[in-house]
Predict the 3D structure of the following.
Amino acid sequence: MDKKSFKPEIASVCKIQQFVKHYFEKQKSDINKTSDIDLIIEEIVVNVIKYGFKDISKGIIQVEINTLKDKIILVISDNGIPFNPLKAPLPDIKTSLEDRKIGGLGIFLARQKSREFDYLRENNQNKLTIMIGL
């Protein structure tokens, strides 16, 4: 398992993606899910940065990565405002793009690319555990 903290800024998205790729390089793992993992990280972390740190001066995003048998376990925690993505309304993907409301698609995509997607608010932190099949 590797764990690292990041500042809640857009530049951290790429840094987090690189951190995760480096983990797999150290493990000498040939992971074919990197595009899915990159998408999940981008969608979740951008939302955390954009919406989670209003009026919070000392924000932090912590990322843990691990593999267990046939799955990748990615844990993204932050000390931002409470937000449970499991309670976010699902987007109406059947409606045309012109008529569709903006928002919600990133969480939807992240959930679609995951085997499991769990949320917990603990010790004043949002903790999102994402499991991705290998």
Observations:
- The chain has three helices and five strands.
- The helical segments are 11-26, 34-51, 105-112.
- The mean pLDDT is 90.
